[in-house]
Amino acid sequence: MIISIKNAFNVSSKARFLPRLWIGLSLLLLLGLSGCGFKLRGQVTGDLQNKSVIVDGVNYYHPLATELRRRLQILGAEVVKLPKENLKDFHPEKSLYIYLNDPVQQQRTLSVDVDGRPLEYELSLQLDARIFTYGQDPSTIEPELMRVRRVLVYDKEQLLAKSREKQQMTVEMTRALIDQISERLRIYASANGL
Q1: CA pair distance 29, 33, nearest whole angstrom
Q2: CA 124 to CA 23: how far, in whole Å?
Q3: pLDDT exceeds cutoff 50 at 21
Q4: Residue 72 to residue 52: CA distance in whole angstroms
Q5: Which are the contacts of 165, defined by CB distance < 8 A and separation ≥ 6?
Q6: pTM score, two decimals?
Q7: Are 145 and 134 in contact (CB under 8 A)?
Q8: Of 13, 21, 124, 169, which has the fewest Cβ atoms less than 10 A away?
């Protein structure tokens, strides 16, 4: 009886070593990740903090423009609406100006089965954008092509599900395009000292 009580309180060296090993390896991993510049995805950086951004070109109420304005506000930018009248009183010095052409969505067949029916589609969403500082001549700025592509596998037995998947994929492609646009704005702002 005395031996069993003694063994109950005697913790083996192996049991004491394992938690210390896990803590040590975790610290080593965290130090390694932070040392290489790793950042968590979705971390908001302040590159657009307190910057004024004018979004123009595409319809003001287009879903892409609405979502882009919302994303820029989340990143800390002040989204300014370009007035239709009284441009003489409008002086947004050092404002970023982005001119977006209407987005173009395309669908292309990638592969067909033996009967000639499509098996895979490539969906692409693209637009041309000009990013510059307000007051610059936009005709001197080359438009940048921003494109997002996804592959949709077609299944004739699941027509309703595939149409729903296509709608969801279009929403995700729009978000990815907005990510590209906001990243380009951040890069332009930091490169030009705005």
Answers
A1: 6
A2: 46
A3: yes
A4: 10
A5: 152
A6: 0.67
A7: no
A8: 13
